[in-house]
Amino acid sequence: MQAPDLLAALSGGRPVSGARLADAAGVTRAAIWKQVEALRARGVPVESHGSAGYCLPWPVEMLDVDSIVAALAPAVRDRLGALEVFWELDSTSSELLRRGNAMPDLGIVLAETQTAGRGRRGRTWLSPPGLNLYLSCLKRFEAGMAGLGGLSLAVGVIVMRALEALGIRGAGLKWPNDVLADGGKLAGILVEVSGEYQGPCAAVIGIGLNLRLTPALRDQAGQPVADLAGLCGGEPPSRNRVAAALVESLVEGLAAFERDGFGGFVDDYDRHDILRDRSLSISGAQGDLRGIGAGVDARGALCLRLDDGSMRRIDSAEVTVRRA
Ligand code: BTN
């Protein structure tokens, strides 16, 4: 029995004895124990309940490509290039970068777990199986990289639209594209673009969305974090349904971005902008600045109103909200 089979066997959230697991898999109880330890090492909180056996603290819905596809609107299904679900990848984004031309436009991969999940600024993205979502989407653009200003902000809006479609409230966007809830990171977005400045290019869009974080994961995250369980009264929605909502929002949103650029996303960004009218500290290439958040422009730059009333547009910087 391998780790994915064990996770599936425990997915009901009720205890299953080591003897039953061993019998079903035709292996020794020691082999089961080894896989329990392997799951724990990946961040899955498998509990031991004495003679009752092993148990997960909650039921787990394993990712399933057919369930995701079945939940898609027919028009989205038609436009989707590919949809693949893996048990384990180093990183869903690295997988798409490796595939290159072999992957169709709007090809999407998900993994139950990533062994080398990548975050922004060289950070690691913790990716235990059975808890959260790790998804990457390949989008090709004919117009070239020059037209992709604001793409990563548009993806933030795309994630917010998926959450809204699921009826989930309480999240917001922190420029450029962090999806936050209760001051913690709910979703991370990593956009990697390659190709020509004025010719064909491709973006690999990676999204990590927290559905259920364990106390250990919160400790390891190294930054405040949030999960959908917290926004939904303790029980996150179905993982396959959330995956389908993200896929739908990506397919529709990326087509709109290709057609209209970031301009078509500014209003929605504004609705979810948690920096608007807040007192901000900015640190970046332009030095350190202080001012009031005044939304984003049609290129995706952050607008900052300085004390003298003038407006500065910030293309790249670290932003912190100042305490009142
Ligand atoms: C961030 O640091 O805010 C961005 C995190 C992006 C994580 C996602 S998970 C799916 C995809 N695969 C990766 O290795 N990274 C992105």
Characterise the protein shown here.
With 324 residues, this protein is of the alpha+beta class. It has 3 domains: 53 residues, Arc Repressor Mutant, subunit A (Orthogonal Bundle), CATH 1.10.10.10; 207 residues, Bira Bifunctional Protein, Domain 2 (BirA Bifunctional Protein, domain 2, 2-Layer Sandwich), CATH 3.30.930.10; 47 residues, Roll (SH3 type barrels). The protein has 11 helices and 14 strands. The protein has a 7-stranded mixed β-sheet, sandwiched between helices. The chain has a 5-stranded antiparallel β-sheet with strand order 13-12-11-10-14. Biotin binds next to helix 6, strand 5, strand 8 and strand 9.
Provide tags for this entry.
single chain, 324 residues, seven-stranded mixed sheet, 11 helices, globular, binds biotin
SSE layout:
Elements: H1 3-9, H2 18-25, H3 29-41, E1 47-48, E2 54-55, H4 65-70, H5 74-79, E3 82-89, H6 92-99, E4 107-114, E5 133-141, H7 151-165, E6 171-174, E7 178-181, E8 184-195, E9 201-209, H8 215-220, H9 228-231, H10 239-260, H11 266-272, E10 279-284, E11 287-296, E12 302-305, E13 311-314, E14 317-321
What is the gist of this entry?
With about 325 residues, the chain is α+β, with helices and mostly antiparallel strands.
How many domains make up the coordinates? 3
For the biggest sheet, the summary is:
7 strands, mixed
The SSE order reads HHHEEHHEHEEHEEEEHHHHEEEEE
Based on CA atoms alone, the radius of gyration comes out at 21 Å
How would you describe the oligomerization state of the chains in this entry?
single chain
Helix percentage range: 25-40%
Taking pLDDT < 50 over at least 5 consecutive residues as the criterion, the unreliable ranges are none
